[in-house]
Amino acid sequence: MKTSPSIPLAGLLCAALFSGQALIASEPVGEVEGPVDLPPAVLAMPVETAVLTAPPHVPPPITRKHAARVVVHLEVREVESRIADGATYTFWTFGGTVPGSFIRIREGDVVEFHLNNHPSSKLPHNIDLHAVTGPGGGATSSFTAPGHSSRFTFKALNPGLFVYHCATAPVPMHVGNGMYGLILVEPAEGLPPVDREYYVMQGDFYTQGRYGEPGLQTFDMAKSIDEHPTYVLLNGSVGALVGDNALTANVGETVRLYFGVGGPNLTSSFHVIGEIFDTVYPEASFSTPQHNIQTTLVPAGGASVMDFKVEAPGTFILVDHALSRAFNKGTLGMLKVSGPSDRVVYSGKEIDAIYLGDQAEAGTAAQKREAELEKKIAAEIKNNPAIASLTKEVQMERGKRVYMQVCFACHLPDGKGMPKVFPPLAKSDYLLADKDRAIRIVMKGLTGPVTVNGETFNSAMPAQSQLNDEQVADVVTYILNEWGNDGGSVTTDDVRRVKSETN
Ligand code: HEC
Ligand SMILES: [Cu+2]
């Protein structure tokens, strides 16, 4: 095995893990076999460089009626870019975008594939193209360290639309960071012409922050293993195909979508709201077109091609019809169709009659009044010392329950902790000095040296992130007031305020 001195430890680890998989393919990893001896018939074929496009664009249809030698240069780049408004993510990409560059070739082509890993990358990567017949789909020949370039040759034996992806360990992480794209192998006889072609891919993303949480987000391995994505996206970010970035067409045109699912985990129930696919090539097999389809299932690591004529103007929404993904995780795109409307195809809203109008308005007014009164009651309660102290007592009881479930294991039921290991909470000068800090410790944990009542502890308390805001408020109120402590009370508003502080 040939290793480069520039491969960092993580790379060697990846290589080691990957070679574990490659044993199945019974081929040594990274061995350089030298240039292939092409037979005269292949050498006689014309040579061309593939045109690659960024999503949602697709390279132009192939017009030649013969096979060619096609050179593909694909560059791996690790880039930080927007995943949602206010939130960024370090995507690992083929060509700088998610999904990666679209590659278009023809059945019978002999492809000379160059995988270039940009010098700024932190990790080695490789590529498994589902269009390749051979071990690892090319992965065993393309393990490429940062600042290196690998080359291999393959013949496109089967037509279809194929997913390609990185297959470096841990594979779900490389795919989950955006390392996938599509390669179209046009059948020798070509595809029926259409007016517009677009490139869309769905992928699931696992971030440590919640959906929409601002700042740079990092990959969450636990969520990925549990297959609980934070985001499920079309073309790599929330809104990638919305508003000014929407796909467009004119009434009367036929649109073709090249749609793939990178995964790593979820299958898509792909649907365009307000459209019926005139033709679907299920699982992207061009030999078995189906007609008049509403929703088509596309597996992780699979693709589909859909053709449909747009007869009505308006906005058509692309979704995964597993709808929580569309409405809560970002799986939503748009196709805006302009042109004249044929009101027999679709009339638009014909009548808008009053229905329960008066009652609805009365209802709104009553609701407003009720909210005002509730606010007044809350203000009264807050200013009434008897009620305030009762509220605190209720909080103490609830807080005790949380303490006896969670905290007592380390800090002990009497709050005295354990010398050298767990600091005391009873009469803790450290605790009583800063209420906000106590909230922060419960939510985010604590590590490093801390001095409590003159004794220094240097241990670690795990973040109690399983507690909700109310439980945090209750348990901190409890420890601030139990065991003769006199620290006042903590409200859920306090918890939210502390939580919203940066870092
Ligand atoms: C797994 C053990 C463990 C659990 C469970 C735990 N803690 Fe801690 N806690 C620690 C350790 C260890 C430290 C000291 C950390 C350090 O050395 O930096 C600590 C420190 C603290 C401190 C600051 C030091 C002090 O004594 O004033 C507070 C406050 C605190 N914990 C509250 C809680 C509360 C409230 C809970 C339950 C919601 C809880 N802890 C659950 C281990 C734990
Ligand atoms: Cu990779």
Question: Your description of this structure?
Answer:
- With 503 residues, this protein is α/β, with parallel strands linked by helices.
- It has three domains: 9-192, Sandwich (Immunoglobulin-like); 215-338, Immunoglobulin-like, CATH 2.60.40.420; 398-500, Cytochrome c-like domain (Cytochrome Bc1 Complex, Chain D, domain 2), CATH 1.10.760.10.
- 26% of the residues lie in helices and 29% in strands.
- The chain is built from eleven helices and 23 strands.
- The strands form five sheets. Strands 1, 2, 3, 5, 7 and 11 form a six-stranded mixed β-sheet that branches.
- α9 packs across α10 and α9 (435-444) crosses α11.
- The longest helix is centred in the C-terminal third of the chain and has 27 residues, at 357-383.
- Heme C (HEC) binds at residues 406-407, 409-411, 422-425, 428, 430-431, 438, 441-442, 446-448, 450, 452, 457-462, 464, 475, 479.
Q: Secondary-structure map with pairings?
A:
Elements: H1 9-25, H2 40-43, E1 47-49, E2 69-84, E3 87-94, E4 103-106, E5 110-117, E6 128-129, E7 149-155, E8 160-165, H3 171-176, E9 180-186, E10 196-205, E11 215-217, H4 221-226, E12 231-234, E13 247-250, E14 254-263, E15 268-273, E16 277-281, E17 290-293, E18 295-298, E19 302-309, E20 314-320, H5 323-328, E21 332-338, H6 357-383, H7 385-411, H8 429-433, H9 435-444, E22 446-452, E23 455-461, H10 469-481, H11 492-500
Helix pairs in contact: 7-10, 9-10, 9-11, 10-11
Bound molecules: heme C (HEC) and copper (II) ion (CU).
Copper (II) ion (CU) is lined by residues 92, 125, 166, 168, 174, 179.
